[in-house]
Amino acid sequence: RFMMKKIILYILRGIGLGCVFFTLSGIIFDIIFKGSFLLNHWYYTKMAIGSMITGIAFYVPSLVYQNEKLSKGLQVFIHMGIGLVTYISVGLYVGWIPLQAGAWAITGTIVIAVVVSFLIWFGFYLYYRQEAKRINAKLKEKQGI
Question: pTM score > 0.90 for this model?
Answer without folding.
Answer: no
